[in-house]
Amino acid sequence: MNNTQTKIALVSLGCPKNQCDAELLLAKLAKAGYSFVQEPGEAQVVIINTCCFIQSAKEEAIEEIFEAVRRRDSGTPHKIIVTGCMAQRYKNQLAQELPEVDCFVELGRNDDIVKAVEVAVSGGAEKVFSGGEHNMEGERILSTMPHYAYLRISDGCDNNCTYCAIPTFRGAYRRREFASIVKEAQVLAEKGVQELILVAQDTSVYSELPKLLKTLAQIDKIKWIRMLYCYPQSILKDTEDALIEVIKSEPKVVKYLDLPIQHCNDEILTNMNRRITKAELTALIAKLRKQIPGLILRTTLMTGFPGETPKQFEELAEFAHEMRFEHLGCFAYSQEEGTPAAEREDQIDEGERVRRCEVIVEQQEMRVSEWSQGLIGHEFEIVCEGYDRYAEAFFGRTYMHAPEIDGLVYFTTSGELQIGDRLTVLITDVVDNNLVGEAKAGTV
Predict the structure, then answer these.
(1) What pairs with residue 439 in β-bridges?
(2) For 14, which DSSP code?
(3) The dihedral sign for the CA sequence 149, 395, 201, 60
């Protein structure tokens, strides 16, 4: 079977950083002559790009692998390759426990994905591709909608949060060269990308971030620049407020900041090794809102960290209510082997961790409803992302919404639209915490 006859399905799980890896893999495979299909059941080779940040992510990855094995057992003759964070973290264990998988590819061997496919197809003996350094550079085939793309600026992490295993498989912090990032952004813009979404384990630790934002804003075809994963302790170190100033003053940098805080109680923050206090968090959030009019804040919280008392959890819930984050994600603590927090004896019952998480989520839904109602009567620029035939309306996003995580705006218009088109929409209603509106005449 030659490469042109071999169809590959790549299933990518987890975060946008993982998606960037998947897009690098796709480009290498395409250059070698392979073609792609969306449905794994139609492929000769299924590549599963895994995540293993927390237990639920590992369970999702394992289930995806099992599903590939079940398809093959039921008569779909495909090879199975597992790459990504789980392959990096558990390669030897998985190779023993999942003999049905043809190859495991560590992150540092992603550049050898073509060789891995060849070995899998030919039935070669090399089961695990290990070693090497994870490469963040290269051509990508975008798996997002054509008008936006993730732009990775670094990988790995030196924060050493006590609950997080990422440094054990993603390694220490490694930044990309400034010129390389800018060049990639220019290539993406020429391909039709209008929105750049900067990602890393900790985006704000990139020392030249304000300069990078200003430089990216000079690319003519770029309309929006968004940042995810900006850790508050890194922003606090910016004593000259350079990042705040560029968000405030540069029109293309959207007034949106993803600020993962995890908790607010000082004892919990210390035990997490977050290197920030509740007072500092409160002051920083107030400062950001004061200095950047129209700022949208997203955060992430964790419930059930070892030793978290009912009173400390109540403090967290009250803090989330008082700070009134426009967007908030919450997850229950996951006891990850190899982390200091996992060794603590004061673990919280898993059911209680989840219950506390559900309380935070329910409270946030009420806050989002209230915030959304306050947007009725206002006009926003919308980027169109499709048409919902059941709702009989187009849908898209404002600057207030990051792709896939923050909700949508459904709107009607008499004009014809394509994905990526921009127009002004008047918000008229809220349904299930999604905004509803009408296109302003003359903007289509």
Answers:
(1) 425
(2) S
(3) negative
Within 92-231, strands assigned E span: 103-105, 128-129, 148-152, 154-155, 174-175, 195-199, 224-227
Q: Where are the beta strands (DSSP E) in 369-408?
A: 379-388, 393-397
CA atoms within 13 A on the CB side of 358: 6
First to last CA, the chain: 49
> What does the pLDDT profile of the chain (444 residues) look like in tens digits?
456 678 999 999 999 999 999 999 999 999 999 999 999 989 999 999 999 988 999 999 999 999 999 999 888 889 999 999 999 999 888 888 999 999 999 999 999 999 999 999 988 878 889 888 899 999 999 999 999 999 999 999 999 999 999 998 899 999 999 999 999 999 999 999 999 999 999 999 999 999 999 999 999 999 999 999 999 998 998 878 999 999 999 999 999 999 999 999 999 999 999 999 999 999 999 999 999 999 999 999 999 999 999 999 999 999 999 999 999 999 999 999 999 999 999 999 999 999 999 999 999 999 999 999 999 999 999 999 999 999 899 999 999 999 999 989 999 998 889 999 999 999 999 998 899 999 987 565
Which helix (H) or strand (E) segment holds residue 63: the answer is helix 55-73
Cα–Cα distance, 165 to 96 (Å, whole number): 22
Neighbours of 420 (CB within 10 A): 18
Q: Give DSSP secondary structure letters for 32-46.
A: TT-EE-S-GGG-SEE
pTM of the entire predicted model: 0.94
In the chain, the amino acid numbered 359 is V
Q: What is the dihedral of CA 166, 171, 172, 174, to 10 degrees?
A: -110
- Encoding tokens for residue 267? 């004892």
d(CA 388, CA 176): 39
